[in-house]
Every structure is written in structure tokens, then in C-alpha cells.
Amino acid sequence: MAGKTLYDVLELSSTASSESIRAAYERLSAKVDPGRPENANRPEIRLLSDAVKEAFLTLGNPTTRAQYDKKLVSRSQPPVEILEESEPSWTIPKLTALVLIVIIAFGFYFKNKREENRLAAEKAIAAAKAKEAEETAKAEAERTRLELVKQQQDRMLDEQQRRERDMALRQFSSQRSTGDRSDQQRMQQERMADQQRQREEAQATRAAALQAAREKAELCRIERQRYGRAISC
User: Fold this and answer.
1) Which terminus of the chain, N or C, has less C-beta within 10 A?
2) How far apart are alpha carbons 203 and 233 in whole angstroms?
3) What DSSP character marks residue 10?
């Protein structure tokens, strides 16, 4: 990774947009995921994954990206002062020692920065998972509430239908009872009419018998007057 910029890590140019940075991070983080089977025996994958996360956390934030771009510009500028001494004041051993010191210092800085970025990335991932779990819990609670409301509505509907059935049965029973009473009244009226007819017939029979008796008595009287004796009696 030495000599590479964070743009090189994400395989982008320094003018890349925020969307391109995010897309490159998602693509590379999936590619160098240590959990993938093809990366199991590759020890360098962890370093690549950390480098990708560090690059995204730095370049994905406009503030940290601006600061990083300034550092790149300052590193790419040539030295302002040019020594015009006849002999160089820096010897090869001194330059070698200075280069080693810079490399060691940069190594410590990069290691600490990488650890900070790793912790920040893990914290961001944990926060995203916590938010997702919270949203899942809210959605589950909402589904439970809707199910309870539906069950309550179903119970109310069943109770209403039961009341309507009971009312219909009562109305039917009442109508049937009214019909039975009407039938009883009709039958009673018919019986009374039959009894009245029988009484009238009995009265007519008695009246006829009485009339016949009177007529016979009259006939006997006439016969006695005319013949001296009653022939029909």
C-alpha cells in the first residue's frame, strides 16, 4: 500500500464524485471481505479491507476529504528553497536515516489512523445494525397492533351478527306465536259457529216436533168432533 493515495485504494481519480466514492467502496468492500470463502487463506485481505474502509471514511466525508486533498497538494509541491552550496549539506547516511525516520513515523501514523478508522467503521456498522433492529422492532410492533385491531374488529362483527341472528329468531318466534294464536282463535270461532248451528238445528227440530204435535192434536180434536172418535190418535 506504500506510495498509494486513498484515491488509488478506491481505484478512483481525485475528481471522483461522492456517488462514485460510495459505489467504489461498496464494490471493493464486498470484493475484499475477509468472510468470503475465497479470501480465507489470504492474510493480506484484512489489510486491504481496512485500507478500503479508511479510504471511504476519509473521502466519503467532505470535510476530511478537503483536508486530505490539501495534504496531497502540499506533498506534490516541489521544495521552495534550493540549496546553492557547492557541496550538499545532507549526506547519504543522513538522508537514509531521515527517510527511515519518516517511513517509521508514517507507519505508526498509518497504523494508528487505520485502527481509528476501523473502530469508526465498526461503530458506524453497529449503529446501522441497531437502527435496522429498531426499525424491525417498530415494524413488528405495528404488525402486532394491526393484528389486534383486526381481531377486535372481527369479534365485534361476530357479536353484531350473533345479535342480528338472535333478533331474527325472536321475530320469527313472535310471528309464529302470533300465527298460532290466530289459528287457535279461528278454530275457536269455528267451534262456536258449529255449536250455534247445532243449537239452531236442535231448536228447529224441537219446534218442528212441537208443531207436528199441535197439528196432530188439532187433527184428533177435529176427528172427534166429526166422527165422534179420534181416528189418528
Assistant:
1) C
2) 25
3) T
Examine the pLDDT at 85 and tell me if it is beyond 80: no
pLDDT tens readout for residues 212-232? 889 988 988 998 899 888 787
CA–CA distance, 6 with 59 (Å, rounded to integer): 8
Question: Are 54 and 110 a contacting pair, CB within 8 Å?
Answer: no
pLDDT, tens digit, for every residue of 153-179? 988 887 898 899 888 888 877 787 777
Is residue 25 within 8 A of residue 9, CB to CB? The reply is no
The CB density around residue 110, as the number of other CB atoms within 10 Å, is 14
List for the chain the helix, strand, coil content (%; round to 5). Answer: 80, 0, 20
Place of cell 483536508: 67
Task: Name the amino acid, one letter, at 97.
Answer: A
**Helix, strand, or coil (residue 91):** coil
Q: Mind spelling out the 3-state secondary structure of 20-41?
A: HHHHHHHHHHHHCCCCCHHHCC
In the chain, the domains with their CATH numbers are 6-75+98-145 (1.10.287.110)
Query: Residue 51: what pLDDT?
Result: 92
Task: Report residue 56: phi and psi, to 5°.
Answer: -70, -45
Q: How far apart are CA 90 and CA 98, in angstroms?
A: 10
The angle formed by the CA atoms of residues 128, 129 and 134, to the nearest 5 degrees, is 100
